[in-house]
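Components:
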Amino acid sequence: MVETVALATDFALIIGVAVSLSYVARLTGQPILIAYLLTGLLVGPVLLGVVIETELIDLMAELGLGFLLFLIGLRMQIDEIREIFRPILNLTILGTVLQTLLGLLIAVVFGFSLTEIIVIGLASVFGATPIIVKLLADNDQIDTLPGRIDVGVLVVQNVYLVLLLALFGAGSLDSPLGVATSILTVFVLVGAIGAFAYLSARYVLPNLIHSVADNDEVFFVVGIAWTFLFIVGAEELGLSIEMGAFLAGISLAQVPQSAELAEQVQPITDFFMMVFFTSIGLQLEADQLLAFWVEALVASGVLMAANFVGFALLIYREGFSPETSFVGSLNMVQLSEFSLVLGSLAVAQGFVGTEVLGYLSLLAIVTMSLSTYFINYNYELYRRVEPYLDRFAREDDHTMEMTTREDHAVVIGHDDVTSDVLPVLSRGFRDVVIIDRNQEYLHQLDETEYDLIHGDFSHTEHRNAANLGRAAFVLSSSVQPEVNRTLLEEVNDEATVLVEAERIEDAFDLYERGADYVIVSTVLAREMIDEHLRQYLTDHEAFMDVRDRDIGHMLWRIGDD
Amino acid sequence: MTDLLGALGLIFVVSAALLVVAHRLSIPVVPVYIVTGLMLPPLVGQDLTLELAQWGIAFLVFVFGVNVEPTRIEAVTGDSEFVAAESVLILGSVGYGVALLLGLDALDAVYFSIAAALSSSLVGQDLIRREIYMNLLYGRLVRSIHFIQDIIAIVLILALSASVFTPDAIAMTLGYGVLLLLVAVVVRVYLFGWLVRLSGGSDELLILTAIGLLIGFIIAAELAGVSIAIGAFAAGLAITREFTQNLALLNGLDSLESFFSAIFFVVLGSLVTLPTLEILLIAATLMALIAILKPIVTIYLLLYRGYETRTACLASFSLDQVSEFSLIIAIQAFILGRITPDVFQAIILASAVTMITSTATKQYEEELYRLVSRYPTFTSAHEKTAERSNVDPDPSDHVVLIGYGKLGTRVARVCRELDQELVIVDHDPNQLAKARREHEQYVFGDAMDPETWRRADIDSCRLVYSTVPDRRLSEQLLEIETEADVIVRADRTSEAIELFEQGAAYVNVPDFLASERLTNTVRDLLSDDTTTEALRDDGTATLREMETDLRNTDTFDQ
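Structure:
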């Protein structure tokens, strides 16, 4: 029987250290991911040696990877990068070839064995999604041209990396024949699962998800179960669980509720990923980590510089300006978090020894922490070198019209209170963004007239998508005080903000926090009721007129269905 | 892949399949998980799945703790704290006696009686989500009764985690528990806000911090020798909901809770082997206590506190199931080897069954209520309600107002100002007191009951005005054969249209009415007919006026 103590000891240490280091990372502007890696090194055999990998940690690390890939699949929205899809595709292919060649080359120079060279080369992919996306979002650069290029490349690159994972998971790297068979098998199997995913996305999932979307917990569990179905299926077929999870995500990405599901899965993924990155540190002994420390340091410098120059040239070659090329490439100069995934998979499969994982870990830590500063000062650095790059400027540089929302109206929750306001807003503002989780309501709206965001406002991502910080007018029909407080915190000072409350105390509180008007529907309704009843008791005909008018109005609203 | 991953896959895939079906039947999730567990073969790596199940307990109690806001505990409705405590006491002691009669030993009998006494807030509040949303009286009652029972459960968990059951040991455990809670309060007041600021608004870091606190308190609980559930509860208290960036945190914790509690309940179900006759007998007795005795006791207690029969019945039909806290108490006893496996399995079986029967009693509540109200013992309360009403012998051309809340008080004011005779009908004892202070004519009773209508002399009135957003009530009022006009309330326009078609003179949809005002306001704003400053001043002024106007009322909206 299980002792209750087993629940906590190892985990308590990991989490305690991870939390502390994360705060240190936060204060020094470093990505949290680095804090996790260091946590593993600190509590693992490298330094303290107080925590060893247990089956539970293994499980959670595996789940972390699975859910991460599921999320990546779930967020595959090709739409977002369609306008620059061609250059992105070119960039991804050439960029990945460049990165792999550089990785191979340097591994050859250092004299690794053949298999090690292959693993290191393939794992030397640059561009870490969690770091780039996070920092660009913090610096409000996601919507800039370099930002879009980077995010686009990362999205496409993920597809390649998932295939690579499947390959690593499947077979042997010993002989060319083995590799070829592995590749073939992987493609056939992926094709089979992909076909299943496509068919279910087409015929089963929309109805299934729709039928449970009104209950958060059922919706969430169905989403998780779908992932597990593919994970276990892929495993049974001898594919990597990551591949299965990714395809599960892709098949669900097509349902309108996918963004909402992604937001719900994100927290457990974060939690398990923390365990995963920690577990990398746990696998390493001190001598394994430091076996190639000189090589790792040299490689960090060389790869960062070479990848930066190479990738910048590639972007420039696609017809973008020197500035875009410089900044777009500078953002990408860190090892991908997938390199560690590939590395630990290669160790697990016995392709390489733990030393190679140590090399990759050091490479990741150095490049990730340095690149944070590059990303934070990307435009300042460009200003420094601008005079020298001016002569590369061309007349016909790509200067994309960026569709950033600005001075727009945001409506949270479309319901009986706000529905009549929408036409008024749509006349007053160029863009009206509506965030609502209830698709029944959203169906009634004309997609050409409004931008619809399907999901719960309480999720950060949806708020970012609506670009709340730049809205000129915000109307919230949510009566949750937490939602409205968050809203008031995030809008800019000039915006006109109307929020709804149910309780009088909440209404006063919201006024204090800067709301321009607080709608309390019962208070407004009371006034109308008063008016109507007076009419009823004193001037019955006038009352009947109001009655007929209101019935007509209500029918008109229902007619929208 | 670890075997465990396969086990988890099985847990979630089977649960999801059953949930999709159960969702159509409006069955809450918890019993579905337990049934999933019953169906599954013994899970591989049982030790590890049990360990994951512990995480489920931790997150369940943790999230409960986070949601307890000491500064904002809503005014507990009326006497629900007495009703909650009394029903726990009565069912607990009856359960204990019955268990002894069944031949269980004293300790088993304690666990048995706890299972009989506590009701599940997870299941119950899922069932009455609509009523809570509409803020109906019995929805509020059920919610606050659950809340009190959950708090009682926490105390029981604490007391039962004593290493030996001597007064000294229990006192010491209680002492440690209180100490943990004190530490939690200190963290809440001094440390947590600082951490939030330090995290700089990073959602990921904030959630990790919360998990860190959870683990920290669990470790502390283990060191102090009390149940990890107490640690989890203390950790929940250490986190305040009252900060602006809390949305992501609360959502994140919900996801983690959903994930791990699913595992917990399924694992719980999977611990039941093929039940023997003895297990079935114990389970059946427990079910009988919960499904039959508990509603009867609760109905009586509510009637005794002055609620009318219908409210008492409907509230009771949402309280007739085993609590998730009883399951936590049982599994912890199981892990410590303090409960006989037979009794443990019986409790799990009974919980799955009563959670499902509770769904049924909720769905057929009206039928059950009619059945119950036929028995004179339950209707004797009518006498009492008659005493608590005050209507002139022969009113005529009056307005019958049903529901005396935010909207109702305004209706009453208009009538008073226009010298219109008025009879108020309400079933909330608190509203009755207010009506009594302010008006001469009122009827205390269930608005759906023809007896109430007779007392309000609905036949001779000119207008029936209902401010209650309950569809069933509205339709029933529209079916009364009377000359009078009927004005009702609905919360959605689609429902309002149907009620108009059924003959309503008018249907108040507060949101619809509010939207008319709001649309004008926005139009004025955009065309610069008004400024935001003016709007703000106007808004706060109206709000102040309302506040004064409603001073005598609760914030309940009926």
